[in-house]
């Protein structure tokens, strides 16, 4: 019942007022608050009192999901549909394959988030207009896939089907590498700042924005990095190559080489931002068409 | 009369309603607009009609300032105080030293900005609560220094005196390196995206923020990089070292090493952000005290 689980419960409650939702959280106060808000019908802080469910959503860190699947997985009743929201998918999908026969399984990862964490930060609109990756297994039935798709569409997201390996490489590119890049920037600035503390007087708002990811939760980040080592290392190599290319153009003072590299990069980023805005506009238009009809 | 020159003219007009301000801009329409807004008393698109001034502010790209100093510098009248707002300071301060005897000279760099450029983007509060670096030369008189300090305080900024070399190293750390790091991130994503276009479906808002600097104006960025090659190359080396350190902790799967590195980085960034917020709060309090008194 943290940011992800709490937001999903809120969105489901909004869409299905009469659905029975059971919430699990380590924190008793969170369970109480969620029940008082009418988001869950009941809940508990331990698995022992879990009454079973048709649809079980694991909104936990990757390695906690792995532990859960190892310990509780074998006891799950056939017919239960298990979906996780873990940030990396290879290890989890491998573990989902070992669930008892008859248990339905699906890997999932909503591509959204915010800086704050926990139930307090959860909101029913968190998934609106975001991509929600689905990693079905070979054993996943068409029924399970269609249930998962409906859930995702219901909470306002776009389902995107990917293999676990493909997902992990893409998120390494757009999320895990940027986190390490921002952290290395901060480490570099810290080193300079120890020699010359006026650095921090000169650091304007631009640097605050650039280094924002370096303030991410370390425990969650390590959980992600350590379950995605190979793709992240491969991306780090590609990143170092890209840095080298810029460096050698600069080193040689080759203005035209530098200009052509940086122009191509700038055009690509602007293309991506405009594409994102266009998609967003399209979805807003579809939303308003649906409201009108 | 672009973002910097225009904002400075607006702030000066606000502080000194009867000061005579003469504006120079390549674009005739900008000069007209600034005059119509009452920000400048008069202006022109060429230097030929410039009537001379007590205080001459060069708000141009670094290499344009160098050209100006080379071509027009020798013709400046003794007693004129010349200050530039260029983004790198070593080359400019070297050129300022060659001005005719009796011309007062000062290097300057306001640590602020925004994504938009040009007169349209200029605003009178741009310098509020920002650091404004001053690089006096050996020839700079105490009078010139005090005039420059007053100007900076008047527009709401904090003067910070640095040598040109020190300035250039600090801005390489907090501005030029982050630009190259963001550009290399985008180049890496572009490469992955060419092999797997679904990358752009997965890239959420987080990636947009992280890569923002890669959309900076390329001509201005190249002007800055090419006049700050050695400090930027040195910082790139330090950055690559920091990346290597994170990479080897990840490669070895050493959770404790990774945690201690990333925790130290996170704490340093949070310290810097809190320090910035505290300073900002202090200044707001000082502002309101001044208003009360």
Structure in words:
2 copies of one chain form a homodimer. Chain A is of the alpha/beta class and 293 residues long. Chain A folds into 2 domains: 3-162, Rossmann fold (3-Layer(aba) Sandwich); 163-227, no CATH class. Chain A has 11 helices and 7 strands. Chain A has helices spanning 3-15, 28-36, 62-71, 90-96, 142-154, 164-195, 199-202, 205-210, 218-226, 229-251, 255-292; strands at 22-24, 42-44, 55-58, 81-84, 104-110, 131-136, 158-161. A 5-stranded mixed β-sheet of chain A has the order 3-4-5-6-7, sandwiched between helices. In chain A, strands 1-2 form a two-stranded parallel ribbon. In chain A, helix 3 packs parallel to helix 4 and helix 6 (164-195) packs across helix 10 (229-251). The interface between A and B is large, with 90 and 90 residues.
How would you describe this structure in keywords?
homodimer, 293 residues, alpha/beta, Rossmann fold, 2 domains, five-stranded mixed beta sheet, two-stranded parallel sheet, 11 helices, 7 strands, 11% strand, globular
Shape of chain A: globular
What is the CATH third-level topology name of the largest domain in chain A?
Rossmann fold
Greatest chain-chain contact: A-B, 90 and 90 residues
The CATH class of the largest domain in chain A is identified as Alpha Beta
Number of domains of chain A: 2
For this entry, what is the oligomeric state of its chains?
Answer: homodimer
- Give the beta-strand count of chain A: 7
* CATH architecture title of the largest domain in chain A: 3-Layer(aba) Sandwich
What is the terminal separation of chain A in angstroms?
35 Å
Class inferred from helices and paired strands of chain A: alpha/beta
Let me know the CATH homologous superfamily of the largest domain in chain A: NAD(P)-binding Rossmann-like Domain
